[in-house]
Amino acid sequence: MTALAARSMGYDIHVLDPEAQCATRPVASRCITAPFSDVAAAEDLASQCDVVTLEIEQIHPDVLDAVAARVPLRPGRAPVYIIQDRIRQKEWLRAQQFPLGAFVAAQSADDVADMVRTHGACIAKSTHGGYDGRGQVRLREPEQAAEAWQALGARPCLVEAMVDIHYEVSVLVARSPSGQTVVYPPSRNHHTSGILTWAVVPAIISDDMTTRAQSLARAVTERLDIVGLLAVECFVTRSGELLVNELAPRPHNTYHHSERGLATSQFEQLVRAVCDLPLGEPTVFAPSAIVNLLGDVWLQGNEPAVREALLVPGTRLHLYGKAGARAGRKMGHLSAIGADSQEALGRVLESYRRLSPATVDSFDVEEPVLARISS
Region 159-169: what's the mean pLDDT? Predict the structure, then answer.
């Protein structure tokens, strides 16, 4: 999606990806098939580019160094290094005094058990690579610690105390090498089993919470010295606390609706930022929402009912071109615009129900969701 935005602005695209049939292949002039740890391949990529950016943070530090030695790497090596390790990320946020839930960097199963004894229900997360609910284990009793430790590879892991979440928001910030910064309106998000189910903007939250979330995201971005994009995912607790959950230095799933309803999509904004062009306005011109499409949609025995789904006014289907549908893998999304956030979200949920009625129950998109976003 970033490559398509760059093409529309006249840029040529070269890509390094471990998958030979990666989603960008039809758009790129050149694809290098290599692991994200392959220094020689990364040097080859950099040798033919004017600027390099990324859409995944799990890239070996040696590769980041090799690219940065040859061509501008945006975001830079330092913020990616901090963010790509969950323990390192949380400890940096704590050192910078940003608001967080309780956590511990567990070095043993005993550390995991102690955290559960002290704080009650917790979630243990691998330090690298886990996302969309993978690499995570939920615990309620100290006796579960040994099994969780083994499940995460018997390696140091992040253990976080469960917080009383009222709702989730994210804020996207763009920053250019010249120092121009643009902060997007918050997106309100809902997850099922650790995977984003839907996202909607405007977020239907108080003006005060909007200001707090945007100020927090801007401060994190500036402190990290990000050039490009940073998505700051936050929890809002029932007591009104705003807590940082995770950071992502790249385009983010919770802002895929920016392509439909905002003056500048996150994909175009990334191109503008890394090429040091004037940043675009993040103004909402149409309330918009997305629902993720997982591989489960293609594994339930019937072809997705695309025609029925697209009969819902204001909807659009986006497929990523990934090879091989599997359960839990993001294969695309539906988007919708509406007169307000409720209508946009209602339309995209209805479109999803028509597309894949067999998976609706497991994906938490029933009507009560609409009532929950009004708080």
Answer: 95
